[in-house]
Prior knowledge:
Two copies of one chain form a homodimer.
Chain A: E1 2-8, H1 10-13, H2 21-31, E2 35-42, H3 46-55, E3 61-65, H4 76-83, E4 88-90, H5 92-104, H6 111-116, E5 118-120, E6 124-125, E7 133-136, E8 142-146, H7 150-169, E9 174-182, H8 186-192, E10 203-210, E11 213-221, H9 225-243, E12 247-250, H10 255-266, E13 270-274, H11 280-285, E14 295-301, H12 304-311, H13 315-320, H14 326-340, E15 344-350, E16 365-372, E17 375-382, H15 387-406
Parallel strand pairs in A: 1-2, 1-3, 3-8, 13-14, 13-15
Antiparallel strand pairs in A: 4-5, 6-7, 7-8, 9-11, 9-12, 10-11, 15-16, 16-17
Helix pairs in contact in A: 2-7, 3-4, 10-15
Amino acid sequence: MPGEIILIGDELISGRIGDSNARFAAAALQAVGLAFRAAQMVGDQETDILEAFRLARRADFVVVSGGLGTTDDDITNAAAARFFDLPLEEHPLMLANLRRLAVKRKRKFNNAHRRMALMPKGVDLLDGAFAGWSLMDSDGRPWFFLPGVPAEFTGLFTSKVVPALLDYFVGQKSASRCITVFGISEAEIGRRLEGAAAKIAGANLGYYPVFPEEKLILSVSGGSEEEIKAGLDILEDEICARLGRHVIVRGPQSLEEEVGGKLRERGLSLSLAESCTGGLIGHRITQVPGSSSYFKQGVVVYSNQSKIELLGVSREILDAAGAVSQPCAAAMAVGARMGAGTDLALAVTGIAGPDGGSQEKPVGTVFLALAAPEGVVVEKNWNFGDRNGVKLVAAEAALNLLRRYLAGDINFSNL
Amino acid sequence: MPGEIILIGDELISGRIGDSNARFAAAALQAVGLAFRAAQMVGDQETDILEAFRLARRADFVVVSGGLGTTDDDITNAAAARFFDLPLEEHPLMLANLRRLAVKRKRKFNNAHRRMALMPKGVDLLDGAFAGWSLMDSDGRPWFFLPGVPAEFTGLFTSKVVPALLDYFVGQKSASRCITVFGISEAEIGRRLEGAAAKIAGANLGYYPVFPEEKLILSVSGGSEEEIKAGLDILEDEICARLGRHVIVRGPQSLEEEVGGKLRERGLSLSLAESCTGGLIGHRITQVPGSSSYFKQGVVVYSNQSKIELLGVSREILDAAGAVSQPCAAAMAVGARMGAGTDLALAVTGIAGPDGGSQEKPVGTVFLALAAPEGVVVEKNWNFGDRNGVKLVAAEAALNLLRRYLAGDINFSNL
Lengths: 415, 415
């Protein structure tokens, strides 16, 4: 049951903005065992839009993104009315919703708003609050028209389009879950997970990279809600067993949300000492609303002098072992914890490149350390990548070290 | 002369990875006055690829991305050979280049490498080092086949495809420049730049947002190299005059590269004190290779306690004016500069939200400070956005404050 997605907008075809809806929708479909066979992108010209619509009749279902807004170049509804040979009329429910929204936002309801309610006659709104709608064409092919704004597109696609497609093509309920994986190649994930989904009726498994993580989307469709939940439980456990320690988050939350939640739950405070990551770990931790309740302070110690002054790393360690070394990482973590008076401290020192590498410590060598009431633990990490890649992997590995500590998965006997 | 781009790959159409080549190519074309009219994306199935090729004959030129690699699912060359009715043969120059590359990389030359050299007979290599090639079809329509790997695609597109298209469609040389703009809405940029490019023969102006910046691409084609350079000089000056202080970088470099270069040139050292940005400014500064020569240290002072202990901000300031205030920002910058012993220090404190805002200081309120030998300067900034947006704008505004100082554009009399 291959589908097609059509992306409409001069701003897209001119490269002024990049599209993210196609990838999002494709990944969401893969997760429930559906797929696109092709995607098309055209500008805001009616002839081009109509040609895209005609071509899309090769597909079993069609998703259209963009051109439903209030400005003059939003002509998707008019093109659709012409294509399906339906009159363009104000949709009464949409009009009422837009009026209510204008009152709520203290804005004057104007002709531009009224324009959004002009839709092909008789279509079904996907959700009263947004401009999206659907219809079944004369061949029994479902079409979904969604706003191009990513937040609206992704929300409607997940909550309305996927369930409608499953209902139409499978006639079954469905649910999905997300697992985040780190520190294992895509090829190895594929090898380890071979056949895992096939064991459970109606199960599907999709995965896509968000460097340096890999996101797995598990889904099960068919049966009762209880059966679906049971199927997902089995599949999730199976996948976690096969991937072991490489599973870093079970659920939709980010790694920084995961560790932040655990820190908050257990009332633990955190400080940071970053060298090669330059502040990236602090940036990620503070992406989480409310992180000030557990994150107290960080230092970015880019010079040897700052490692000495801000963290009390000894001149001896820097001279004997160097700034990128196990003893320096340990001293940084201990110094950060003591200085900040926090329960925990995370430290990173490494060589981001492109210069500064040696035979013994090549570019990409990173030492991660965690200081805790139980002691301090240091791990060495190496990854191949450019400067940005090394920083991204180092920050991820550091947050993962903290996560493992919070999960009781750290052995403090190594120092 | 509208073109078409075809993106090929199961990994794209399944959403496993997102495409960035279409946007890059579209923006590069806009900058020289060319454009795509449509884009298509299909998987690695020959029937789908052939259908996309057939459809693309509606365009005046065609760019194909992906499927030129060494694995079994890379079938673009085979599909092209069938489509153009040409035999699939080993390209002798490509084969020789691949052999040389294998020796250089100390890898064994194998059948997978040999597979990359299998191309439709008689095509022209774009560049001996990569798998890209071009041909003119029987209607006189140029086709360009490029590897999908973004680094290879963008390199070849810029260095080979754009010049070839200009040569073919315009018969003229061309050159382009980039200007980065900040702190002005897209609509206002459009209004101010209206008619600017029309004054110069062969000039074009494209722009696209990379939040929170706007990138402008200026290009001039036609005439001698000297005439093109003169046209670009006039256009660049005209644009900079019209946008004034909103132009933050002239050239292709990033803002952090721009300020880094100036710091290095003048032998000035820098330290940071970040609150609401959480380390993002340090992360950006350390994205630049060699930044350790001017960036010494930073502190992320997320708690009041850390502002006192690490920066010497007084309890009185925190009690009377609060952590998000002009005096606190000034004290942070001065404390950071003194503590680190650097020539300059940059400080940021603000409310990233979603909580913590008030009537007087709503979410998005940010104070930026720069401490220098001449004194300290503080600026207040407000922006509407979510937590991530507030952080991105605050970091950009802070780096821009530093850039303006380095350009001699700061008045120290305000404190």
